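User: quick one - fold this with 2'-deoxycytidine-5'-monophosphate bound?
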Amino acid sequence: MSAGAGRWRGVIAIDGPAASGKSTLARRLAQELGLGWLDTGAFYRAAALAVLRAGADLDDERGAVEVVGRRVISQDAGRTFLDGEDVETEIRTPRVTEAASKVAVLSGVREKLVQSQRRWVEERGGSAVVEGRDIGSVVFPDAPVKVYLTADSEERARRRLAEFGDAPETSAVQESLARRDRTDATRTASPMRLMPDAVEINTTDLNPDQAVERVLGLVRAARVTG
Ligand code: DC
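Assistant: Sure. Structure tokens for the protein plus 2'-deoxycytidine-5'-monophosphate:
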């Protein structure tokens, strides 16, 4: 965004449950503003993949922290790497999706991943669009723009089905989303929550362009440029 206002500086935090439209919004917003886009969920997915590959127990915090500590998880241009290997496709499988929600409850794993996420943003001069569950609350609590995306559960299941054509029925997808929401919102370590200084946007009846416009409005209002 230019409009004579200079380049945006700082983090735009996009939090919210699975399939609420975060990735589409974050990617397009980043393009619009000429910023990098960080998908932190992919870090939890890559960490889960590392634990699964090591044959370690997903409920054993010490073991999982040890495995994750030995691995380098990175992201570039929307693709995720585990020790330099492109794992973007593998981390989207149902098996890794379920495992990611389990490793995400482990505070030792979260600490390591949060460090990598902050470093990623630092390396890009401190400005980026960052999506996840705890971005506005824990990773970047001082972000000048915080958005909390939601959408009705039926609409979220419909989107998930459209994304993965071979998925089971809507009700099964809805159930799996609800289970992950519950785990994400009730865990002790950095639970997903709506921060008082975040703006909640319900995307059920918004198309991607409208959602981007809404957030660009917040960005213009925040006027953090340099
Ligand atoms: O956004 P996603 O579905 O790719 O996230 C995968 C898992 O990681 C999901 O169970 C929530 C968790 N997660 C998290 O705990 N904190 C984040 N910042 C991002 C994702």
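One thing worth noting: The pocket of 2'-deoxycytidine-5'-monophosphate is lined by residues 18, 40-41, 44-45, 100-101, 104, 132-134, 180, 184 (CB under 6 Å).
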